[in-house]
């Protein structure tokens, strides 16, 4: 397969409710969607999932778009590859930001699926040697941003449970106390619940984690530093609740650190953060084969990124419900037709050929304003 041209269109979304995590508050979410055209005229879609500012990892929308247009696409030139893995090897060799690589690589998988007459989900399954029947839906959970009080959090949890979500993740910062978390947990003792600290704590805060160790959280996500594996291992040795790592997992070297140092029991896998689907599949296999568990994280995606996440989360490696919410959770309107809905705690995995979602009229019109850029 050869890529002959591409387009990148920026969409700007107003979030329904401002989203607070760690020390950041987001009210708008710019996302660039990339469309690649192959030599047969098929079009594949991917999205840049970096945030506007480098609050989560050290990558931004603008920086990723610049890398795609100035580095990945020109270097790709007229090269042809026979498998998505060959493309992935090329894209990784550009050393572009992970989320720039992932955006291009997603579209490559969409194209390969279309050329082979299968869904992206099926293509991922075949890539990992899984010939079983495809799953039509996956269990999903939701992340609740930081609130000012336990009662605000409790209200939000109830709203999400009423929507049908069966797993709740609480974003937590240093203002959250043991008392507050105990109050929340006591209100919903049987709900599958976890917390995500987005690297807001230090090892010297270990008593906080020891004091919430009995609250039966499924895991504590990224309590300590974004580059740390050693202090996480020290903390993990002193609490029973499994630690999950997110911000510091980019490549196999990082997964090996978790395995060798016993820094965590879970890895939050995000296609975008690890540079795409091929990398996510390889890292999932590595982690699971060494006793870790993986689950699919979220980045306030559009329906495009969400469709890739659903396919990934349907793989056998993924047993714990992912951060994959319905289309209407964050935005008034998505950019795809037939938006994703939650039913009995599950969201359906697109089954039709390719990614299985189509841009809606508004998005198609925006894309039509741009000319295809030949590479
Ligand atoms: Mg996280």
Q: How would you describe this protein?
A:
By secondary structure, the protein is of the alpha/beta class. Helices cover 35% and strands 21% of the residues. Magnesium ion binds next to loops.
Please give a quick description of this structure.
The chain is of the alpha/beta class and 375 residues long. It is built from 12 helices and 14 strands.
| Low-pLDDT stretches | none
CATH homologous superfamily of the largest domain, by name? Enolase-like C-terminal domain
CATH 2nd-level architecture of the largest domain: Alpha-Beta Barrel
| Sheet having the most strands | 10 strands, mixed
Strand content: 15-25%
Report the C-alpha radius of gyration, rounded. 20 Å
Order of helices and strands: EEEHHHHEHEHEHEHEHEHEHEEEHE
Form type: globular
The number of domains is: 2
Q: Structural class per helix/strand content?
A: alpha/beta
CATH class of the largest domain: Alpha Beta
Share of helical residues: 25-40%
What is the number of strand segments? 14
Average residue-wise pLDDT: 95
Query: What fold name goes in the CATH topology slot of the largest domain?
Result: TIM Barrel
How far apart the termini lie comes to 14 Å
* Number of helical segments with 4 or more residues: 12
What ligands does this structure carry?
magnesium ion
